[in-house]
Amino acid sequence: MKKLNLPKKVINRYSRLTVFFLLGILFGWLVFSPSHRTEEKHDHSTDIEQQSTVWTCAMHPQIRMDKPGKCPICGMDLIPLAESGILSIDPEAIHMTEGAARLADVLTTVVSRQKKPVKEVRLYGKVQPDERLLQSQVAHVSGRIEKLYVSFTGESVRKGQLLARIYSPELIIGQQELLEAAKTKSTQPVIYEATREKLRLLKLTNSQIENIENSGIVQTTLDIVSNTDGIVISREVSTGDYISQGATLFRIANLSKVWVLFDAYESDLQFINKNEKITFTLQSLPGTEYSGTITFIDPVIDPVTRVARIRVEVSNPSGRLKPEMFATGVLRATLKEYSNNIIIPESSVLWTGKRSIVYVKQPGVDEPVFKMREIVLGPYLGDSFVVIDGLAEGEEIVTKGTFSVDAAAQLEGKASMMNPSGGQSSIMHDHAAMMSQPVSSVKSVLRHETFKVEGNCEMCKERIETAAKSVTGVESANWEIDTKLIHITFNSSATSADSILKAIANAGHDNEKYRAPDIVYNKLPECCLYRK
Questions:
Q1: Residue 39 located in a structural domain
Q2: What is the average pLDDT across 292-300?
Q3: Please, what is the Cα angle at 485 between 482 and 489, to 5 degrees?
Q4: In a domain, 35, yes or no
Q5: Ramachandran angles phi, psi of 507, nearest 5°
Q6: Is 356 within a domain?
Q7: Domain of 208, in residue numbers
Q8: Range among 42-46, 85-89, 503-507 rated most confident
Q9: What percent of the chain lies above the pLDDT cut of 70?
Q10: DSSP-derived 3-state class of residue 28
Q11: Are 456 and 124 spatial neighbours (Cβ–Cβ below 8 Å)?
């Protein structure tokens, strides 16, 4: 092949062009290469988000991982829990997503102060006759009941009305002595006056004595007349009965004024004062509200029922208020000593033993983040509580769904109602695991039990719960009126369900295991009697 002999100048020119061409290809590869373009446009937010998300197991919330994967206990896929930015606010706080809070029906309220808190004291009692208007119709002579003109209980009588007629040998003898003494009254006036006085003591009037003396006829019977207006509430004799002097024939009550006697627990007595107004309703007269003034507070508390009687005097001209009617009273007492205190709804408070806790929403966070806080409560106002210590005005607390938030805290091993120190809950439901531990390593165990306890009303509820809480080791007790069930949480190393049920029975309430003693049950207020 014939070799081309090109000039040296031409060769140098082509060499430069080749170099420029190769440099152009290299530059284009560097600029337009897909791998480099992807690297330049790579979004690091995904890496950051993945690194800042805490992953946990739905079945084992104590598992915390900084990346997705499998649960080391059950093998389930881990799910994202919360962003690290939120967790860094307070490691003991409970973070819930907006969706989870809506599903749990969690609502919050900003707490505020109340200038004049009013406590609503609810009392239960019965209508009773005014004891000052009770009269006993008695026989002033011994003898036999010849006839009763008032023969049944509940009959109305008027003052001076004839009630009964009595045959009395003693009366006959007294009249005969009068007639004999009248013959010698000029010579023996002392004896004459003595016989007249004897008849006056037998409740004969001067006109009756004059008629006997003038007519010379001995009356064989004595009329008993009513000395008051009212209703016969008790008939003690029947026709033909022989009675002695001073025996009670009838008991009559004037019902133009009545008493309403309420039972007040000793814990409510501090809010009740004389001369205060109280409103009440009657079960037999629904829709009508009555009012009265407290005129007397029993200074002695009944040792069995633990109540003191509160007396309210009410005018009853129409007679609609009848003895033994059940009454429900409401007293609104202004708590001056707690003026300007914070008031929170009852639904926001959780109790365990002597501790009262609420969940406070953490400030400065958009999503629901709550932390448990122990507070000191004052008086119960009916549907709210006075807060003595633990909350500041303007803080936001959970007022609905509190149990749901507390359950989330327990699942995450954080401070909660039953486990204030956080970590693994002390409530042990796995009895097999407990039995496998040495006896020395088993700690105190909180148990929750439910039992049926008989009762009727709010007074029963307070009595049952007080009896249960009086047993050492009981953390909480809640009796439901509708279901008749009591929910008890207690330390099984300090007491037993048997001891708690026995204490409730001794307070007057039958339960699944024990029957209340009859002597205790019979002393319960009328509205609390549940046995058929």
A1: no
A2: 93
A3: 135
A4: no
A5: -85, -5
A6: no
A7: 132-252
A8: 503-507
A9: 82
A10: helix
A11: no
